[in-house]
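Structure (tokenized):
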């Protein structure tokens, strides 16, 4: 491949990746519980996403222990899994969580940000299979793992992407 062709291919891939990040950010801004939790998109790459959540005091199971409620980790894994499906197919589409199984390995300390890394392991016409790990961002300590399945092309809320074109998510 000649130099200019390779440069063009790299440019096109960077454009697709930045487009995927833009769509993921739009998802996090327009889905109410994702927005309310303050979930941030760190990266999106061919079926894998990284999301961050910075805990707030209202997320603690008990204020004196500063452990984050497991439901916060569950929501983070579910959001990361859904975005991993979108990252894999490279388009916004309606999806629904069919099953999400979590294993909690240790409590999440409320003073540290959490990082979720979700990967779409297999994709069929109707189902996506996801693995997700949740870490303490400061020390990369594994806190929880999740396995999920998502149904593709379901009915969902209207999603507005750039250019005011309506899509469902």
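Design, position by position:
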């Amino acid at each position: 491949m000649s130099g200019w062709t390779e440069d063009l291919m790299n440019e096109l891939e960077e454009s697709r990746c930045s487009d995927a990040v833009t769509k993921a950010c739009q998802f996090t801004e327009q889905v109410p519980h994702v927005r309310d939790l303050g979930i941030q998109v760190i990266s999106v790459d061919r079926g894998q996403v990284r999301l961050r959540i910075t805990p707030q005091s209202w997320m603690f199971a008990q204020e004196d222990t500063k452990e984050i409620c497991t439901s916060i980790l569950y929501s983070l894994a579910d959001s990361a899994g859904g975005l991993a499906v979108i990252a894999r197919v490279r388009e916004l589409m309606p999806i629904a969580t069919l099953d999400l199984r979590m294993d909690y390995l240790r409590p999440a300390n409320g003073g540290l940000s959490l990082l979720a890394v979700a990967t779409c392991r297999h994709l069929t016409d109707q189902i996506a299979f996801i693995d997700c790990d949740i870490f303490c961002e400061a020390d990369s300590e594994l806190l929880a793992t999740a396995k999920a399945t998502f149904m593709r092309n379901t009915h969902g809320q209207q999603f507005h992407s750039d250019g005011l074109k309506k899509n469902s998510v």
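Reviewer-requested clarification: The chain has three helices and ten strands. The chain has one domain: 3-168.
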